[in-house]
Amino acid sequence: MIKVLSTGIYSTIQDFGRFGVQNYGIPYSGVMDKQSASFSNAILGNPIDLPVMEITMLGPKLQFETKTRICISGGDLSPKLNNNPIFNNKSILVETGDVLSFGKLNRGFRAYLSVQGGFKTENVLGSYSMYQDITPKSRVEKGDILKIASFKDNGMRANASIKVTDTHLDTTKIDVDKGPEFDQLSEDQKKYLLSKTFSISKDNNRMAYQLNEVLENTLEPIITSLVKPGTIQLTPSGKLIVLMKDCQTTGGYPRVLQLKTAAINVMSQKYTGQMVSFSLDMY
């Protein structure tokens, strides 16, 4: 068990997402940065899709009521165990009563905490991913007691075969494909979209990232159509909205670009004021 002493900004339990129910309007959800979450699990010898805690910007304070091993990957949020600094991407033995806390955000935006054997919160519709009105809670709350797998001491200190790459935390390049309505844009609009550097607005969360700069929009609204994580919509006002893991399943705005899978990892590690640019192959 893990007791939540404080929550941080926004912490949730996530796995790889909820599939096969989008026709009911239920989002995919799941970890925003799949690469970092996968490393965190793999270093502990877990299957890479086991539930982890996704931690945004400011971490929680957690007390372990049982012995286990943990690993933190993704953003550097200055983690400490019993007030002693610890490193990301390491298998760390935690004893009963130990307290994990976080401090200053140094790099990235989201970190992933895995425990040996995974978190054992409630599975709803085939996933442990928290989402409002789908799971009993939409985020981790102070006082929560989180179930985790029973500890089996296999003597493992780290998985030496795992080579962690986290350059996506720093890159500003967002690789994209054409969206269904991309070719309806004028050549000037396409050039602007693919040559401009855009800044992340204050409106960014697990549902979507809005960008500050405006692309003049002359397109007609579309019939409500399918969207998915990574879809970039162009609103009537010219705002660009990058849909993320908790996004809706349909939308009526033109879909001008689509983030590649790895680019969603990159975008998820950005926050207000940071810059990104879009890269489209063969254009």
Describe the secondary structure blueprint for this structure.
Blueprint: E1 2-6, E2 10-14, H1 34-43, E3 52-56, E4 61-64, E5 68-76, E6 80-81, E7 84-85, E8 92-94, E9 99-101, E10 107-115, E11 145-146, E12 173-178, H2 187-195, E13 198-204, E14 208-211, E15 225-226, E16 231-234, E17 240-243, E18 250-251, E19 255-259, H3 261-268, E20 275-280
Parallel strand pairs: 12-20
Antiparallel strand pairs: 1-4, 1-11, 2-3, 3-10, 4-9, 5-8, 5-10, 6-7, 6-9, 12-19, 13-14, 13-20, 14-17, 15-18, 16-17, 16-19
Task: Describe the protein's architecture and organization.
Pfam families: CT_A_B (PF02626). Residues 23-283 form the Carboxyltransferase domain. This is Biotin-dependent carboxyltransferase family protein. GO terms for molecular function: ATP binding; hydrolase activity; transferase activity. Keywords: ATP-binding, Hydrolase, Nucleotide-binding, Transferase. The protein is mainly β and 283 residues long. It folds into 2 domains: 2-167, no CATH class; 171-280, Cyclophilin-like (Cyclophilin), CATH 2.40.100.10. It has 3 helices and 20 strands. The strands form 4 sheets. A 7-stranded mixed barrel has the order 12-19-16-17-14-13-20. Strands 7-6-9-4-1-11 form a 6-stranded antiparallel beta sheet, with no helix packed on it. Strands 2-3-10-5-8 form a 5-stranded antiparallel beta sheet. It is elongated, with a radius of gyration of 20 Å. The model has no long low-confidence stretch (mean pLDDT 92).
